[in-house]
Amino acid sequence: MLFSGNRGNWKGFTLIELLIVIAIILILISIALPNFLEAQLRAKTTKSYAEMRTMATATEAFRMERGVLLVDFWDAETLDGMNRVKQKFNNVGSIMPRCSPVHPTGRSMECVLYPLTSPVKYLSRIPDDILAPAAGENRTGNLGHDEHINLPGNRTYLYADRDSKIKYNGAYGNGDWNGSTFPYPPVPVAGMLRPLKMDEFVYSGFGPGVENSVYGGSVRMPVAYSPTNGTASVGSLYYRSTTGSVNP
């Protein structure tokens, strides 16, 4: 309110003045909101790396004590993988009986990690990937870690390894992540995750931007997220057992 003359003579803002104030407020919001969202995504990315680092530390402790790695999603149906789950893990996270009854294969991503929480708690809990797409949200060209990302038990980080003690497709250590299945480039490419070394493992999470569209748009395809173009950059988050966070 504006004061004019004596105490009883007040007049309000004009319509033009109100519109100017509203316009200024909207401009300030339009400037501040993207910065806030960018900061929020950066914080989530940092949290994802921290959680994968914690999971990698727990996995190393597990390996030191048990003498073996976890059995990743692909190795679960191999004879060596099933025997390890039965004999070393006391059937914790097994595919038979079904670890995850609602999952089409009977074994969700969480099932892979259950041996880290029982009977010894190397991890206090299995975290959800904070950047995983919401139910019905398709940021990936497919549905992410695998085609069942939005089913219960599949919203955690993806664990994969190249295990010298598990025979896959006729050869030990010949799992999906050693370069024999996916089209890794014949020469190193900046930002591209190299094939795993023997007995190396990796954790993977969704990137804050659009999922990578290289080789079909799957989070399994090893293109590492880089913040060079802001949080909209293409790529997935990786934490490798031998090198830590993978950054181009």
Structure commentary:
- With 248 residues, the protein is of the alpha+beta class.
- It has one domain (45-245).
- Helix content is 27%, strand content 9%.
- It is built from 3 helices and 8 strands.
- The chain has helices at 15-66, 79-87, 109-113; strands at 2-3, 10-11, 158-161, 167-168, 171-172, 201-205, 237-240, 244-245.
- The strands form 3 sheets. The protein has a 4-stranded antiparallel β-sheet with strand order 3-6-7-8. The chain has a two-stranded antiparallel ribbon with strand order 1-2.
- β1 and β2 (10-11) form a beta hairpin.
- The chain is elongated, with a radius of gyration of 25 Å.
List the helices and strands and how they pair.
Blueprint: E1 2-3, E2 10-11, H1 15-66, H2 79-87, H3 109-113, E3 158-161, E4 167-168, E5 171-172, E6 201-205, E7 237-240, E8 244-245
